[in-house]
Write the structure tokens for this entry.
Amino acid sequence: MKRIYLVVLALALLAVGGCTPPPPIEPTPEVTGEEESAPPEEEAVTEEEGVARVHDQSRSGRISQDEIWSGTIRVTGDIWLDDGVTLTIMPGTTVLMSAGRDDQNRGAEWVLDESEKEKIGPICTVEYDKSHIDITGRIIAVGTPDEMIVFTSDSTNPSYADWAGIVLRPGSRIEYCLVEYGGRIGIGVQSNIPQDESVLISNNIVRHIFLGGISLGGTTCARVISNDISDCGSEGINVEPGGGAPYIAYNTVKYSTVGIATLPESFAIIENNVLIDNIRGIESRANDTIRHNHISSPTKQIHEQSYMGYTWPYLMNPPPIRFAGIQIDMNCSATIEFNVIVNNDMGIAIVPMASPSLRIEKNNIYDNDVINITNPTGADISAQNNWWGTTDIDEIEAKIRHYNDDPNVGKVNYQPIATSEIVTAGPQD
């Protein structure tokens, strides 16, 4: 969970059982800008039947019994819940996180050392020379479309990494929340329960995050559904190694370095998502099922917050950035079907050192500026029955890089081809 990508992970794939996808949830509502909140008046904590009700008060430190938050809550330091304790946050609550301050002094471990600063440069490190605040535990934060719960910085001039993020433990549920200005995450999940489907993250807005918007760790099979995620310096949604099989569906991810990324050992189902203007729409290193997504980069604009894709690690002389619909890394074993992959620089890009085992079928892959698919590896790739925007084999071949261009690499076996656009590709209701 706590990571900055300064090394290349090389982990073996492990088998794990899948999780059952839930029915879709309605899309995220639009939210307008927030007004400045006046400091709340401190009120006493009231207790009834072992539950503390906290309204318009400051909180910090350990929570050893169930609490219910409402009004405006000012968080001044790390908060961690004892096992078996639940924090419930009522609709309409605003949680203000102290920007760059932590009265628990638990954030010092996140400050980079000098060697790390040299690697990633001043634009990145300025955000990490701060204390960070986590809220960690079993959290039930369920707002409504009209009364969203807000987690934000208390700064009058908020910025990336003003606080650290929310870490959900098994049994948590976070819906109709606005989460912004986090550091290493917006919302994270950590579980060691095999095939744990107990966490639901849905209908949230997650934005302005220094690294990952939503990060899924351990063995979680969390359901991540109908969230609007944007402006993340690393991934919009990230699946950490650990054998998890999360269900990631009906999300919109924009303006981040990577829309959705998976690491080895994961078995994610990634379907019905819309990925727009991310440097890499989906980056798969695992046993993923990738289907019915729309992946495009209509503006190909590098956003300032894309630290991991642009500022790091290429500070002095950055190479040209290529926007890729799907990037295949390492020993990826993925099924890629019924996707629309258009208007990127590269449609499907396989990295040279990868050893993939792929099935690429019944996608619409066309109008990508440089190439539609590239295979620089030594293995042949199956990519049959896709629509390439034309039936002219010479035109199709012109946007495929493989054995016919370099006999030292494998083939892209793209025939037979689809003879017309696949109408069932792309997100489905």
In short: The longest strand covers residues 185-196. The CA atoms of residues 112 and 169 lie 26 Å apart.
